[in-house]
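protien #1 (seq + structre)
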Amino acid sequence: MSTINHLMVLYSGGTIGMQGSDRGLVPAAGFDARLHERLAAESQRCMPPWRYRELSPPIDSANMNQQHWLAMRDAIVAAVEEDGCDAVLLLHGTDTLAYSAAALGFLLLGLGVPVVLTGAMLPADVPGSDAWDNLFGAVDALARGVAPGVHLYFGGRLLHGARATKLGSTTFGAFAELPRQRHGERAAALPAALDYRRIRQPVSLAVLPLFPGLQAAQLRALLGSGVQGLVLECYGSGTGPSDDAELLEALREARRRGTVLLGISQCPHGHVAFGTYAAGNALSEAGLLGGDGMTREAALGKLFALLGAGLSADETEHWLRQDLCGECADLPGASA
């Protein structure tokens, strides 16, 4: 870890820069002017040399999609390789902040600089907002030294980008790392196919929680819609309706077609261990790959990065089993 000499502030939109309208809060451009005004008002505030760029148009993060992930990836890489920045602060809406942090963690593997995402629960112009505390708190964390990779700063805490999730819709401490057990095997080396330079394409993905009464016809309709990868949120340690032969056959059919099936736990403190129960073994035998302790955000972002790189289903499954950035293996000194 090292201190930063040239920071890129990248603004994508979100509540932190929103302004009021007759329809409610909407994204607004030109956040750099407000940042300059705040710095002028806080003469004691130190900022490293910084540049500013914003995605156009800025968006409400509720509208986030894969194309936006790719645009943010491109802007971050340009900041490092073209502008010479050695750190990036990405301002982002909170609704999908954890999804973007996880996705970028996989899209920027090997970049070698710290990227910190933050946002706010209230717009920066609102009295009592958490916007400036989060923004300057993230800058201060970077100034003290942050390891290369993607992180999320919120409510006074620096979180792992592929482990964080949003737990609250009003509290300033809305984000946390879920205490999920992780037993994945760390990848020995990063393959060229997953390096940040690898161009990605949009991928058809889906997330589905198991629930009592889920019908095989519903699952088959989803799997038959052209999805290339499915994150199936299982019960507990990876169980599901093992007595529904038709549902299990729908999974087998999809896997034979080349759809990647990844199972994670619905439980905030859960992880997948298919061998614990026969009901879990049935899902595994039907083609579901265990996602260990990955969060929904990490599972979706990792599937996108792998399949979007053009990897085959078998290649994707291989790397899903390998920990790439701390998403499914405990890291020294990291919170669980």
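ok now protien #2
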Amino acid sequence: MTPTELIFLVAIFFLTSVIGVVTGSNSLITVPVMLEFDINPARAIATNMFALIFMSIGGTIPFLKSDVLKRPDLSLLSVLTVIGSILGALLVIIIPADTMPLLISIFMIAVTVFSVTNKNKGLEKQEKPSPTALKIGYGLTFGLGIYGGFFSGGYVTTLTATFIGFLNMTFIEAVAITKVLNIFSSIIATLIFMTQGLVDYQLGIILGITMFFGAIIGAKVTMKMSNLWLRRIFLVVVVFLAVRNLWQWIS
């Protein structure tokens, strides 16, 4: 990789980490960019996952002094994520990579439809979810943990929608909680990738430090925004990514 290509890659990772604190789906942009530089697909996924550890930590730090992380079920959500991520990371060598754009597009479209038809979800504090909603929310957390450990592209986005839709979180709460869970998901997946020798540590550290500072900036900006504006940004990016990935699959 030439110095010019590295600078371009760093710029892309920085911008996506700033915006991705709210929207997630960084990997839908960063991994394809890495593939354009002839990085092996499995190595690109593994190195990107390694960098996501730094981003998730950076995105969590600004929320530590707020009340949005004080949820009694955070430990349960973390355990479900860890177990799912272990299973997901083991699927990288099994599931064909060319199926991912269609799968991701379906997730994105589902998130968009849900968000549009539930306009008030995530804007204000709501009553405690029903037992059924809790079971669905926890089940999806586990299932998405599997997907997050496998690829991560669209994982945080769909997890954010799950928390808002079934666990009655506000947007700011969901953004903060997903950053914490993504730390666990990324670490577990990266450890498994390391045993397979797939992580490019030199590139991963450079991109990881870039994403760490980008996420801190993004999180600080997020804390100053209302849930309404977070919802608007979330929907715009999700629609864009859904169309982009569907077009990629059709092409």
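Residues 1 and 37 are 7 Å apart (CA to CA).
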